[in-house]
Amino acid sequence: MPELPEVEVVRRGLEKHLVGRQIRDITVLHPRPVRSHPGGPEGFAANMRGRSIDEVARRGKYLWLVLGPDAMIAHLGMSGQFRINHPSDPRLRHTRVLFDLDDGTQLRFIDQRMFGGLEFVAEGGACPVPHIARDPFDPEFDVEDVARRLRSRRTTVKRAILDQRLISGVGNIYADESLWRAQLHGEYPTAQLAQASAVSLLEHARAVMSEALAAGGTSFDSLYVNVNGESGYFERGLDAYGREDRPCRRCATLMVRQRFAGRSSFLCPECQRLPRE
Predict the structure, then answer these.
(1) If both were cysteines, with which of 44, 107, 157, 276 could 37 make a disulfide (CB 3.0 to 4.6 Å apart)?
(2) 2 an active-site residue?
(3) 191-229 per-position pLDDT tens digit
(4) How far apart are CA 150 and CA 144, in angstroms?
């Protein structure tokens, strides 16, 4: 699933092309991406048709088009993509929604697995996802406060940094990368974490996601690309995720993979030890 860096790459690509444009028409090719709209595909199209795009904003893994006082939220899910095309360009197989723009181009929403979605939110232009916490790139993100709240949780550190109500944008890949850099085991109890260690972990999360953003994000397959169809290259710089049985880049111990909430965690058993009982 795209995490903060990948969504920010998409946001920047959309911003360059969409800000100042007007949506002339919409064609919903499959109803599932707009399933949350009470008026169905026709109602969604009616709400969006003729709207001008003032801004493309993001919080965590969510992005939205600012349409005056209103907004259209986009969540990419597992495989959602946006592409900028000419209307005559061949459509990719899983194209779901078409937005015809006033400059003669077309914005296309493509979603193979259809876990993503588009939602029109009246009066949502300022922030249509207030239930999502600020992310480490937000200028109002208070690292000391978030560190204190993380330590107050009665859970483990990986579960805490994946909680989008505490810190948004971090997913499984960048959680493992941040924990490796901080030399913390994902099952380390948050209650035993010192404030300085919690701050350091959050700063590592920001640093690793900044590096991923500079590389265009992390692409393991064709399901994540930018608006031009290009893949990201941060996979080459990963220190933990996906490196099972390869030497730790810090101590040369072989990295291991462990099960975590139906997913996988990758860590160094030497550098990232659990505290002794």
Answers:
(1) 44
(2) yes
(3) 999 999 999 999 999 999 999 888 877 654 454 556 666
(4) 10
- Out of 3, 6, 8, 177, which one is annotated catalytic? 3
Catalytic hit among 2, 33, 41, 136: 2
* Two structure tokens written together for 35: 């399933």
Choose, from 59, 61, 96, 181, the residue flagged as catalytic.
61
Q: What is the mean pLDDT of residues 41-70?
A: 96
5 has catalytic annotation: no
Amino acid at 123: E
What is the pTM for the complete model shown? 0.89
Identified catalytic residue from 16, 32, 148, 263: 263
Q: Is 61 a catalytic residue?
A: yes
- CB of 232 within 8 A of CB of 245? no
